[in-house]
Design goal:
The structure holds 2 protein chains of 2 kinds.
Chain A (H helix, E strand, L loop, with lengths): L2 H24 L3 H21 L6 H32 L5 H31 L7
Helix pairs in contact in A: 1-2, 3-4
Chain B lengths: L13 E5 L1 H7 L4 H8 L3 H8 L7 H11 L3 H4 E5 L8
The chains are: A mainly alpha, B alpha+beta.
Chain lengths: 131, 87
């Protein structure tokens, strides 16, 4: 299966899943919604396994830039968001504070993950100083 | 500490350009055919031809070998304001 066929299958599965989930929500049927999502994921897995997905260098670069921009936006947003929630939560509003702490830990985890992946990727591309 | 991180790969004063479209026409290849020969997508060939994307050295070598010319004949570096088409 080539990339174009894979894209067609992907769109088909996405439409199928969203229709099933839509019906499930309108009928208030949780089991149908879960089943729709699981079946969609299973179909997607099968289609993906049958496809040899090749990314060329420009597509890789696009992904890198997109990830870079996402990180640059997401990390400060959740970091500052957590700070705002913790500091400006009204007295006794433990729920907002708890969300603030969760976001704070999440942003720390995110930064740590970035630092670790940066370290290893830097080493892989000769940034360890070894000749 | 670096002053600023930029997402752009191009410098403002100079720019890498290419004559890929010319070589493709000389060799009577479509964008699709060229893309298939060097293992990239048609969008990548379009992006290179319109100077929106600078290929990797690997791809530049592949293109040069395909057209049986030196890399410098396809790709060249041009200062802003210089005449176009200078190899």
């Amino acid at each position: 299966m080539n990339n174009k066929t894979y894209q067609k299958y992907r769109v088909g599965i996405a439409i199928f899943t969203s229709v099933v989930v839509g019906i499930a929500v309108s009928r208030d049927n949780t089991i149908l919604a879960i089943a729709g999502v699981v079946i969609g994921m299973a179909f997607m897995g099968v289609v993906r396994s049958k496809t040899k997905i090749e990314l060329d260098e420009r597509q890789k670069m696009v992904r890198e830039k997109a990830a870079q921009v996402s990180y640059a936006i997401f990390a400060p947003t959740i970091g500052l968001g957590s700070l705002v929630l913790i500091l400006l939560a009204p007295e006794g509003s433990y729920f907002m504070e708890a969300i603030g702490f969760v976001l704070a830990y999440l942003s720390l985890f995110f930064i740590a993950l970035y630092a670790i992946s940066h370290y290893f990727i830097n080493r892989k591309f000769g940034g360890d100083g070894e000749e | 500490m670096p002053s600023r991180i930029t997402l752009s790969t191009e410098s403002s004063a100079a720019m890498a350009k290419n004559k890929l479209k010319v070589f493709r026409a000389i060799n009577d290849l479509t964008q699709e055919a060229l893309a298939e020969k060097v293992g990239v997508s048609r969008q990548t060939v379009i992006a290179i031809e319109s100077n929106k994307y600078n290929p990797s050295l690997d791809l530049a070598f592949k293109l040069a070998r395909l057209f049986d010319v030196a890399i410098e004949e396809i790709f060249f570096y041009e200062e802003e304001g210089e005449a176009n088409g200078k190899a």
